[in-house]
Design a protein that fits this description.
- There is one protein chain.
- With 142 residues, this protein is of the alpha+beta class.
- The chain has one domain (3-141): Yope Regulator, Chain: A.
- 39% of the residues lie in helices and 25% in strands.
- It contains 3 helices and 6 strands, in the order αββββαββα.
- It has helices at residues 3-15, 73-86, 114-141, and strands at residues 20-22, 31-38, 44-51, 58-62, 91-94, 101-107.
- The radius of gyration is 16 Å and the shape is elongated.
Length: 142
């Protein structure tokens, strides 16, 4: 397990937050830390943090926030573009194959601020996803 991953999950341990870790099998893969938090507009949001080096960036992803259909994909693209123009920290995109909405954010950290940067990014992403969810759902059901 990368040192960055270890420092990151220490914050989870200190706060007694639940998480799962999938360790990289070799240097070409990333450690993955997965956690979920309750939300206001949906039951929970599962966040995934990927660390691919001790001093590299963190890649945070929310997979499958929503799922479009062939009939409403154009409406969903429009909402995702609006959300991308409103949010500086995250990117919303639609997977062309399975039509699911993924939310992505990346950040660079230093050895002494891993916890603050990575946890802060995850919490900001959680809030942004929770606030964006009703807009996405409106596009799916309109």
């Amino acid at each position: 397990m990368y040192k960055a991953t270890q420092k990151f999950i220490k914050t989870f341990d200190d706060n007694e937050w639940k998480y799962d870790v999938i360790e990289a099998e070799n240097n070409e893969q990333a450690d993955q830390v997965q956690t979920g938090f309750g939300a206001t507009n949906l039951t929970s949001i599962t966040l995934n943090a990927f660390f691919d080096a001790d001093d590299g960036p963190v890649h945070v992803r929310v997979f499958g926030l929503a799922k479009a259909t062939d009939e409403n994909v154009d409406k969903v693209y429009k909402v995702l573009n609006e959300l991308n123009s409103q949010n500086n920290f995250v990117r919303f995109f639609l997977d062309d194959e399975d039509k699911t909405v993924t939310v992505a954010a990346d950040a660079v950290f230093c050895d002494d601020d891993i916890e603050e940067v990575c946890v802060g990014l995850m919490m900001a992403m959680h809030e942004i996803c929770d606030q964006a969810y009703p807009q996405i759902m409106k596009a799916l059901w309109s």
